[in-house]
Amino acid sequence: LQISGYLNLLANTIDNFTHGLAVAASFLVSRKVGFLTTMAILLHEIPHEVGDFAILLRAGFDRWSAAKMQLSTALGGILGACFAICSQSPKGAGETVAWILPFTSGGFLYIALVNVVPDLLEEKNPWNSLQQVLLLC
């Protein structure tokens, strides 16, 4: 098995941990925010997990092992949610949410920009670059 498969599993576990933080902290704000965050993360995760599954297959995992390993990374999300809930301040959920939501949203923005900005810099047509920046904003 290639090391890239194991690195992908580690990255996916950390990613799921931050998703768990975001979901739990969002539910601490309100049910509506919690459900919206959960739906947004699910929409992000479905194609992400399919891609990770393909990475594991290319790294030498068989289908059953890749599926089990992908499922095991979901424990990172559960741990993240537990961490968010257990880190509540005696003063209330507001202090917990005050650092968790900016941390997780900053992580999402960082990942999005790391994927988008290099392509923008290579774009030859300035109009296409401007359109992409406007859509990103």
UniProtKB/TrEMBL annotation:
Localization per Swiss-Prot or TrEMBL: Membrane
InterPro entries xrefs: ZIP
One Pfam assignment: Zip
GO molecular function, one term: zinc ion transmembrane transporter activity
Key words of the record: Ion transport, Membrane, Transmembrane, Transmembrane helix, Transport, Zinc, Zinc transport
Topology within the bilayer: Multi-pass membrane protein
GO cellular component: membrane
A biological-process GO annotation: intracellular zinc ion homeostasis
Catalytic activity: Zn(2+)(in) = Zn(2+)(out)
PANTHER family (alphabetical): ZINC TRANSPORTER SLC39A7 HISTIDINE-RICH MEMBRANE PROTEIN KE4 (PTHR16950), ZINC TRANSPORTER ZIP13 (PTHR16950:SF16)
Protein family per UniProt: Belongs to the ZIP transporter (TC 2.A.5) family.
Protein name in the entry: Zinc transporter ZIP13
Organism: Anseranas semipalmata
UniProt lineage: Eukaryota, Metazoa, Chordata, Craniata, Vertebrata
